[in-house]
Amino acid sequence: MSDFLTTSGYQKIAKNLVLPTRCFINGKSYQALGGETFTSKNPATGEVLAHITACQSVDVDYAVASAKNAFDSGVWSEMHPSERKGILLALCDLVEKNQHELAVMESLDSGKPICDCESIDIPEFVHTVRWHAELIDKIYDQTAPVGAGAMSMVVREAVGVVGAVLPWNFPLLMLAWKIAPALAAGCSMVVKPAEQTSLTAIRIAELASEAGFPAGVLNVITGGGVAVGESIGRHMDVDMVTFTGSTVTGRRFLQYSAESNLKKVVLELGGKNPCVVLDDAEDLDYVAQQVCAAAFWNMGENCSAGSRLIVQEGIKDSLLEHIKKRSADWRLGDPLNPENNLGPMIDQGHFKKVCDYLELGKTEGYDVVIGGNSVDGRFIEPTIFAGVKNGDRMAQEEIFGPILSVITVSSFEEAMAVANDTEYGLAASVFTANSKRAIKAARAIKAGTVTVNCFGEGDISTPFGGYKLSGFGGRDNSIHAHDQYTELKTIWIDLNDHSK
Ligand SMILES: NC(=O)C1=CN([C@@H]2O[C@H](COP(=O)(O)OP(=O)(O)OC[C@H]3O[C@@H](n4cnc5c(N)ncnc54)[C@H](O)[C@@H]3O)[C@@H](O)[C@H]2O)C=CC1
Ligand code: BAL
Questions:
Q1: What pLDDT score does 2 carry?
Q2: Among 472, 467, 468, which residue's Cα sits nearest to residue 250?
Q3: Quick check: 334 pLDDT over 90?
Q4: pLDDT score, position 500
Q5: ipTM of the modeled complex
Q6: Whose CA is nearest to atom 6 of ligand 2?
Q7: Residue 211: CB partners within 8 Å, gap ≥ 6?
Q8: Which of 95, 193, 217, 466 could lock 201 by a disulfide, CB 3.0 to 4.6 Å apart?
């Protein structure tokens, strides 16, 4: 559903919303033992939304014990797959029933435009959970070709207790990408949302309980990165961690695992993704629209944002003219106004970081094609710097804001070399009318997803994750995500008659 209300309709919902302040453990609302709280603020206004319970390692112990008890009891892990599916589908129905309230909560907490919350985040949450729910009563285990003397079954079993540590840029959607395959596979979970955006994750745990999830299967624990995130990463009873966030923090989870129980670790990390436009690209207005979406969607706070435009010199000027026109599609302002599609930066620390890149652009003397300014101390204008060299900081560092660097190249070969000249490898887009060049480019670029003649991340049926510093250990989405929340077990049955 994506019919928008009016701004005043959303404001009315916002006024009446009851925002959760306690987390959700073992089927109940839970207050951290230490009694401390942290504040969640509206990034668009700075207003305090909620004082949320700040958990510590002792609370993590309780959440993990609850998840482990639930898992070991078999109440979820051994439930008939079609029954598990039914409960996951019931959660989806409840999310749809509460769509507007969840959308407003997400927008207030994260600064995301309400139009995106309504038309992308919530429908995609539901689609993701339904897809994995629908999968679990249709997949079969295998037998191995071991001859007549034995029967060998190769079966998949749920990993156990999964810790999910989440980022703030897609609070609901990243929650879905992690919980849908893990819960469908039969795992129990301890989820830590980012401090900036805890509200909708808590609300989803409440709705899950209402949908019939047994206590302890889905626990949401709130608090800081070190107090809660590290405690999950080092916990001896957590069998796997799935993480989305910065590469710096992602590396830490490998360390936590190595220094504890060698838990499985799946990391979905940063990106500095190229949009390559070759000189035979058709319909430059469409290309410009896609380039703008790649760079500015979700305020550029997107790991797969196309933040480097690599354009062949013959069409650069013409493409930039189209991009200037298309940038008018991006309207900045009150996230609760459904006409706006650019909200504020997530918090003041991040706002300052992105402002520093605006300053860097001026210091470096780049051509400012559009934007270049901050607005109201919270928002950043969509900004394009031309004349950037790929070795520059602007083209190498993940900014996580609506800033696009334009790098000009003279040939296909140079475009490929520049596209790959990054420590990241999450996503890339290529625009060309020549199908051979499209396929060659898609094969040449070292990235987990390469889209041709469009910007995107694939869909629920395609794996999402990165090469190089963009990821480790697995993928979100698709049947591959389901598989990674399972262990492979071989059961070997001797059929020989040993009595002779
Ligand atoms: N790949 C992506 O989707 C994301 C990338 N980022 C990048 O990271 C930069 C910094 O943003 P942050 O919010 O600080 O990212 P972060 O990676 O530090 O935070 C993500 C999650 O990790 C947790 N965390 C933080 N420190 C931890 C630790 N020592 N041990 C365990 N868990 C920990 C946080 O509480 C949060 O839940 C951004 O400017 C952006 O460039 C941020 C969020 C998402
Ligand atoms: N774009 C979805 C994944 C992420 O930004 O973290």
A1: 56
A2: 472
A3: yes
A4: 80
A5: 0.97
A6: 303
A7: 87, 88, 90, 91, 93, 94
A8: 193
Percentage with pLDDT > 70 across the chain? 100
Which residue puts its alpha carbon closest to atom 3 of ligand 2? 303
3-class SS at 50?
A: strand
| Ligand 2 site, residue 303, Cβ cutoff 6 A | yes
- Residue 471 Cβ contacting ligand 1 at under 6 Å: no
Ligand 2 atom at minimum distance from 457 CA: 1
Torsion of CA 16, 50, 353, 448, to 10 degrees: -80
Active-site amino acid positions = 268
pLDDT for 252 beyond 50: yes
Q: List, in order, residues 6 or more apart from 395 with CB less than 8 Å away.
A: 272, 308, 388, 389, 405, 407
Question: For the chain, how many residues are written?
Answer: 500
Angle, alpha carbons 42-47-52 (nearest 5°): 70
Q: How far apart are CA 334 and CA 336, in angstroms?
A: 5
| Domains located in the chain, CATH noted | 7-269 (3.40.605.10), 274-452 (3.40.309.10)
Which residue, 400, 383, 378, 399, is CA-closest to 333? 378
